[in-house]
Give the backbone structure.
Amino acid sequence: MKCITKRLFVTLLAVCLTAALFAGCAAAADGNVSITVLCGFASEDPHGQYIYQYAEAFMAQNPNVSVEVQAISTNDIYTRLAAMATSPATIPTLFFTAADQVATLYDLGITANMQDYLADSVINGFAHGVVEASSIDGNMTYYPVSVQPLAILYRTDLFEAAGLSVPTNWDELVECAIALTNNEDGEEHWGFGMVGSNNSSGQSRFLAYLWSNGFRIIYEEDGVWKTDISMDDDFMTAFSRWTDMNNVHQVVPIGITGVDYATAANYFAMGYTSTMMSGSNALGVTYANNPGLRGNIGSFMIPGDYPGTMLNAEGYAMSAHASEAQKEAAVAFLEFFTTHDDERMFWHVSGKIPSTLEGQKVEYITGPDYQGYIDQINAGCLPIIAFPGVSAFRSALGNAYSVVFSGEATNEQAVQSLIAAVEEILRDYN
């Protein structure tokens, strides 16, 4: 019944999104090959331009290959791909994915094992932990181009002016946020730049926060998927501490449920917030919009006694249904993408950290603004979430904090509903 349920779900998505499906590509009889790249990077600034530039440069060197980049929001891509799963010919040759979502795509059977197509020299060229961060059941589910562990960005100048030290736990972070919040006399400055939207960006940060408090959240034990979400005091305290930042302490921007990653990154760049939990890509946004902040930004690991983030490798999965000619062209494009640009402009302007050993030698990631991310990588990150129902699970987490932020439910009511939703999701996969 479980498989039928998932198949029916995907079929219904396909019916709803038929008009949006992309046409499949195949090798032409004359030896020319066309590949499509469904790309979450391409619509983003300031680095999206380089996706198109790299594609053009690759085609100039490989005139028999046509690369079509199709931009899509990373918040929409998984629903789109789930719909495509019922019509394999519509699945793009390459499609953006990341460690926190790929298990769903792997479970649908649409990701090729990259290790079947990559030379050993390429695999060995990835940085420490990168191959593991993109693998499930020994299958390398996608080709990582960057890593994005979460850390806390902070204004070093504002911390110094207020006499604040880098916090070592969440209570201290809240104290810093309170000290740095000032909305009097017409000023608008918030201590913590929370991403409170109920989408993948907000959900991933809340999940990382819970991890930093010692909760496994979703884990497999003796072949059974389990959770440690409960109504006990420890979990309720952690849950309430997160929602209290808005509802009680008021240290986050107003209208928090509408603050997505792009908004939060811009708030930090423009000086409306003093801290922000984010991947290093927020540095790219900050420096692009406010170059004067260079030298006034640092980063530190998510405070807490436990690992609070995955390596968050992100890149492109390859369709298991693509032709062999397409797969060969796609792999060649991916290798070109990560090696041809000595200046690493895609990574530099975006603030992302390259996935390769060679790429991580670049100078721009050696300063205090990247220190927290490098510390997190060196300290070790959580393994990939292999739970195939991760998208539904994360959505349940997002619903829980959203209803508290909006005043529709208390913390206790939200957690009760969260437990019920999680139990239903687990029944579908156990």
Remarks:
- DSSP finds 17 helices and 13 strands in the chain.
- The chain has two domains: 2-148+311-367, 151-309+389-429.
